[in-house]
Amino acid sequence: xxxxxxxxxxxxxxxxxxxxxxxxxxxxxxxxxxxxxxxxxxxxxxxxxxxxxxxxxxxxxxxxxxxxxxxxxxxxxxxxxxxxxxxxxxxxxxxxxxxxxxxxxxxxxxxxxxxxxxxxxxxxxxxxxxxxxxxxxxxxxxxx
Length: 144
Known about the structure:
Layout (H helix, E strand, L loop, with lengths): L1 E6 H4 L8 E7 L16 E6 L18 H13 L5 E6 L5 H13 L4 E2 L15 H9 L6
Parallel strand pairs: 1-4, 1-5, 2-3, 2-4
């Protein structure tokens, strides 16, 4: 299993991979709507929520990841665990996507891989969204 994190802009130019699944995270107030991903991906799961955390951000001003969002991501990942990899993106590839990637990496005990100019591996950015990660852990189910 491989894992790739990237920005929305990078995700929109990647050619589809028939043996990979995508988790596409969109900003709720995006003027551009959902990411325009290239055809050919095995499966795409789209979710919309802000890069926010209720411990520091006002939930009345931000759209947080919901229990349903977290359950949907967990179910999607488990349903596609036989694929070669997952690509996860959000707008900047830092907060939400890395929160999801941190959970996937832990869930499957795999390294995290970033889309960079020289395709190098990296450690998660310390700014990854820990609330997103914790929500996914809360709804995690053991891999069968």
